[in-house]
Design a protein that fits this description.
By secondary structure, the chain is mainly alpha-helical. The protein has four domains: about 70 residues, no CATH class; about 50 residues, Tetratricopeptide repeat domain (Serine Threonine Protein Phosphatase 5, Tetratricopeptide repeat); about 70 residues, Alpha Horseshoe (Serine Threonine Protein Phosphatase 5, Tetratricopeptide repeat); about 60 residues, Alpha Horseshoe (Serine Threonine Protein Phosphatase 5, Tetratricopeptide repeat), CATH 1.25.40.10. It is built from 18 helices and no strands. Helix 10 runs antiparallel to helix 11.
């Protein structure tokens, strides 16, 4: 299981009224309103060049919403040349004019250092501004900063508070991170039951990492009664989305016959899918299958290749296997020859 990272919005489908943050209002100027409406039609039609032509004059005049959408377009190079630094500047200007979504995007730029010098403390200030106005993604991002002590003192309770606010709005990454925090929390903040609950909420939204972790909870009997079959089902759903860690876990279930009849061929299939995505544990396991001739014909060259890749990815079992091979090779090389009797 892996923790989450900051959630950066993809460009997705634009909707000017949806992108308008809480507490903002469209300009009273009817000309601005008409231009925004026309820009929305252009965005719906994916005519980004036309959208830029309509939005740029509004942005030049300081319209907060136009500034924010121009930032999004500039970040992705839609209708305008991609320019990360210019996008960050659009976000800053829109944020300073009160656009809540822009506050989150500007803070995210400050955290990532994309187009602007990294500044966690300033990022936390902007995330808080947006979070206090109810923006779920800003609440999630602020929770992340508290969870890891970035720009604010590390505070597990504060992280849980902000994650919970975003999770209650249905944001899957926040639900996942809340589950992760409860699973790994200290003292009263540790709760397998709550972890399982929030993993399930996110998993039901097809969030692959949560599906993988929910499967783990069923496999280990944490938060639920142990149920290998349900674990297998959730691993399978995450693996089908291409999530490498779940593919490895699914391979393990098939190898061990947990929740499903033992099937070494299927195990190799899933290990390979994960290994090809550079998943170290899967690379080692695939190497071991080749080493032992389990589910595939024995092939020591292939075994060594996968062991080496896994070792490069830090897998301790692969490193141990290579050390063992090296010792065996050295022992065979230096073994004294038998003396013949005269």
């Amino acid at each position: 299981m892996r923790s989450s990272i900051l959630y950066w919005l993809g460009i997705g489908t634009f909707c000017l009224t949806a992108l308008l943050g809480a507490g903002n209002a469209l300009a009273d100027d009817s000309a601005d309103g008409a231009a925004l409406g026309a820009a929305q039609k252009a965005l719906n039609a994916e005519d980004y060049a036309q959208a830029v032509r309509l939005l740029k004059p509004l942005a030049d005049n300081g319209n907060a919403e136009a500034l924010y959408v121009m930032g999004r377009l500039t970040l992705e190079g839609k209708g305008v040349k991609k320019n990360i630094a210019r996008a960050a500047e659009f976000f800053r200007l829109a944020a300073e004019k009160g656009d809540v979504s822009a506050m989150n995007s500007w803070a995210t730029a400050l955290v990532s250092g994309r187009g602007v010098a990294r500044n966690f403390r300033e990022a936390a200030r902007w995330f808080r501004k947006a979070a206090e106005q109810g923006l779920a993604m800003a609440q999630y991002n602020l929770g992340y900063l508290y969870a890891y002590g970035k720009g604010v003192p590390k505070d597990e309770k504060a992280a849980i508070d902000w994650y919970t606010r975003a999770a209650n709005q249905g944001l899957a990454p926040a639900q996942y991170s809340l589950g992760w925090t409860y699973l790994n929390g200290s003292g009263e903040n540790q709760s397998d039951t709550k972890a399982a609950h929030w993993f399930e909420k996110a998993a039901e939204q097809d969030y692959a990492k949560a599906q993988n972790n929910l499967a783990y909870m069923y496999a280990e009997g944490r938060g639920y009664a142990r149920d290998p079959e349900k674990a297998l089902q959730w691993y399978d759903r995450a693996a089908a989305q291409g999530y490498a860690e779940a593919q490895y876990n699914l391979g393990y279930m098939y190898e061990q016959g947990l929740g499903v009849p033992q099937d070494y061929t299927k195990a190799v299939e899933w290990y390979r899918k994960a290994a090809e995505q550079n998943e170290g544990a899967a690379q080692y396991s695939l190497g071991l299958m080749y080493d032992q001739g389990t589910g595939v014909p024995r092939n020591l060259t292939e075994a060594m290749r996968w062991y080496q890749l896994a070792a490069k990815n830090g897998d301790p079992d692969a490193k141990a296997a290579l050390r063992s091979r090296a010792r065996s090779s050295a022992s065979a090389t230096h073994k004294p020859a038998d003396k013949k009797k005269p």
